[in-house]
């Protein structure tokens, strides 16, 4: 379907293709990102509680492991997609992802099965990464091969919204479950519900995808006997195509990956762990910014059809390099109580005691400090006396914002999301147009998943390590901006490579 003008029937088919592909991909992203959205709680469930920092870093490393195997999933399922077909391949990835996510919700905690808990979670996380490695390339390719060449940026941008919407849905489900029960119950077992719900979501998506037909371009080359017998060899053994893979990786996907994960996941980690903003409010801030910013994926995808993919992506890269440090500095200052004036008369101390269904006695003491800008700092001391006689004590220091600081923080996250939409909105069409149909699934999936899975997916982990390593005896709080050097450097390198080697004009489809 290369013509710009399409019939009413073709348009109807195209929107069904986009809807069916997007729903399935959104669910896969939901499954994949729900782990990161619950990282702070999972660190307490699957790792020893004796060292909270080590447990959190171990959780981030497990989260990152799913990203590291995504390129392998791209190779395995990319080959399958170029030989068997787009439709059936990402049907398999959907089932694999859903099953792994459901299983994570059933894994017993560290206190029950010890070291086997993190091992099982790691194995399931690796299966999630393999599944996602095959999903995105198939969905983007499938939609692009149904769309008119002159409108690929616009139509593939709907697939681009699914990653952010998947994160948004994961946060929404977590908050809904969290608000429906006591915090102790949520931390004990309620966190499992979002994982288990995945089974229902995947079942709906499988039903929808079974009604889909094969991509017309793939069906055409299959009928003509032009399917690649060895897409991996053609993609990476051919010198010219390998050069395109490397340019796609270092000139676009690597920088796009770090910008995406900095603007959403590291922003969430930074607000919650570095700025100590309360759990629910952190996710509300991210969710509101996501809701406002998501339509821009479609806008920049549409704009890339008019002025080219390269120029939009490169502007997003260089703006990230220039803006990250001032944006994050302001985020930190908005939440730092050193720069706020306390109102002593508003100080409030409460103490509650209750008995859970399991017979445990829970005593919660809250000390609330109120500041002149409407912010609160809540010091929470939770003592749990187990029915069996064991007693645990947990201390938390959290900040809640209101008024101007709260909305300003949403605005600063939204600035980052604008950059995310600039680099991510056009990239599916860009990658699809770079490679011929016969090896497209394999060729585009690998640079995308190395860029996003390794360069991007490691962003929260590496940035957190850089921040922790900045803590010294003289500066025990560390440098809150230290973690930003990683995404800034990667985005800067990608900008330089992209400006030199990328073309702003789409490449003609070789086999169409």
UniProtKB/TrEMBL annotation:
<feature type="transmembrane region" description="Helical">
    <location>
        <begin position="311"/>
        <end position="328"/>
    </location>
</feature>
<feature type="transmembrane region" description="Helical">
    <location>
        <begin position="406"/>
        <end position="434"/>
    </location>
</feature>
<feature type="transmembrane region" description="Helical">
    <location>
        <begin position="88"/>
        <end position="107"/>
    </location>
</feature>
<dbReference type="InterPro" id="IPR036259">
    <property type="entry name" value="MFS_trans_sf"/>
</dbReference>
<dbReference type="InterPro" id="IPR005829">
    <property type="entry name" value="Sugar_transporter_CS"/>
</dbReference>
<keyword id="KW-1133">Transmembrane helix</keyword>
<keyword id="KW-0472">Membrane</keyword>
<feature type="transmembrane region" description="Helical">
    <location>
        <begin position="189"/>
        <end position="210"/>
    </location>
</feature>
<dbReference type="Pfam" id="PF00083">
    <property type="entry name" value="Sugar_tr"/>
</dbReference>
<feature type="transmembrane region" description="Helical">
    <location>
        <begin position="113"/>
        <end position="133"/>
    </location>
</feature>
<feature type="transmembrane region" description="Helical">
    <location>
        <begin position="446"/>
        <end position="467"/>
    </location>
</feature>
<feature type="domain" description="Major facilitator superfamily (MFS) profile">
    <location>
        <begin position="17"/>
        <end position="509"/>
    </location>
</feature>
<keyword id="KW-0812">Transmembrane</keyword>
<dbReference type="InterPro" id="IPR005828">
    <property type="entry name" value="MFS_sugar_transport-like"/>
</dbReference>
<keyword id="KW-1003">Cell membrane</keyword>
<keyword id="KW-0813">Transport</keyword>
<feature type="transmembrane region" description="Helical">
    <location>
        <begin position="244"/>
        <end position="263"/>
    </location>
</feature>
<feature type="transmembrane region" description="Helical">
    <location>
        <begin position="154"/>
        <end position="177"/>
    </location>
</feature>
<dbReference type="InterPro" id="IPR020846">
    <property type="entry name" value="MFS_dom"/>
</dbReference>
<feature type="transmembrane region" description="Helical">
    <location>
        <begin position="483"/>
        <end position="502"/>
    </location>
</feature>
<feature type="transmembrane region" description="Helical">
    <location>
        <begin position="55"/>
        <end position="76"/>
    </location>
</feature>
<feature type="transmembrane region" description="Helical">
    <location>
        <begin position="12"/>
        <end position="35"/>
    </location>
</feature>
<feature type="transmembrane region" description="Helical">
    <location>
        <begin position="283"/>
        <end position="304"/>
    </location>
</feature>
<protein>
    <submittedName>
        <fullName>MFS transporter</fullName>
    </submittedName>
</protein>
């Amino acid at each position: 379907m290369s013509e710009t003008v399409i019939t009413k029937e073709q348009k109807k088919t195209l929107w069904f293709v986009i809807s069916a592909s997007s729903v399935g991909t959104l669910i896969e992203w939901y499954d994949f990102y729900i782990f990161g959205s619950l990282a702070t709680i999972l660190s307490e469930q699957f790792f020893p509680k004796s060292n909270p920092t080590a447990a959190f870093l171990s959780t981030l490393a497990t989260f990152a492991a799913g990203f590291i195997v995504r390129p392998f999933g791209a190779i395995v399922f990319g080959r399958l997609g170029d030989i068997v077909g787009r439709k059936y391949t990402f049907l398999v990835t959907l089932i694999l992802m859903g099953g792994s996510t459901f299983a994570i919700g059933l894994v017993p905690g560290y206190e029950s099965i010890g070291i086997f808990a993190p091992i099982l979670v790691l194995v399931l996380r690796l299966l999630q990464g393999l599944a996602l490695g095959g999903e995105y390339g198939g969905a983007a390719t499938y939609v692009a091969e149904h769309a008119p060449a002159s409108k690929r940026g616009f139509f593939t941008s709907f697939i681009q919204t699914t990653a952010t919407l998947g994160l948004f849905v994961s946060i929404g489900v977590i908050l809904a479950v969290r608000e429906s029960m006591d915090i102790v119950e949520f931390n004990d077992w309620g966190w499992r519900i979002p994982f288990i719900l995945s089974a229902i979501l995947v079942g709906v998506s499988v039903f929808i995808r079974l009604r889909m037909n094969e991509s017309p371009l793939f069906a055409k080359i299959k009928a003509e006997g032009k399917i690649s017998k060895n897409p991996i060899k053609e993609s990476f053994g051919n010198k010219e195509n390998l050069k395109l893979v490397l340019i796609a990786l270092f000139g676009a996907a690597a920088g796009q990956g770090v910008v995406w994960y900095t603007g959403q996941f590291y922003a969430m980690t930074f607000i919650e762990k570095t700025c100590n903003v309360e759990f629910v409010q952190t996710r509300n801030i991210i969710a509101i910014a996501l809701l406002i910013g998501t339509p821009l994926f479609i806008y920049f995808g549409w704009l890339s059809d008019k002025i080219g993919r390269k120029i939009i992506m490169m502007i997003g890269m260089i703006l990230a390099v220039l803006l990250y440090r001032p944006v994050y500095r302001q985020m930190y200052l908005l939440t730092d109580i050193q720069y706020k004036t306390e109102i002593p008369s508003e100080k409030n101390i409460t103490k509650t005691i209750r008995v859970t269904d399991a017979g445990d006695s829970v005593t919660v003491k809250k000390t609330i400090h109120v500041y002149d800008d409407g912010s609160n700092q809540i010091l929470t001391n939770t003592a749990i006396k187990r029915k069996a006689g064991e007693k645990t004590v947990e201390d938390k220091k959290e900040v809640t914002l209101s008024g101007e600081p709260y909305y300003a923080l949403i605005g600063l996250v939204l600035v980052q999301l604008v950059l995310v939409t600039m680099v991510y909105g056009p990239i599916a069409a860009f990658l699809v147009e770079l490679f011929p149909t016969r090896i497209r699934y394999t060729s585009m999936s690998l640079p995308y998943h190395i860029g996003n899975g390794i360069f991007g997916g490691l962003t929260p982990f590496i940035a957190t390590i850089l921040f922790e390593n900045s803590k010294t005896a003289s500066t025990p709080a560390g440098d809150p901006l230290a973690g930003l050097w990683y995404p800034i450097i990667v985005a800067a390198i990608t900008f330089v490579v992209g400006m030199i080697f990328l073309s702003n004009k789409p490449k003609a489809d070789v086999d169409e």
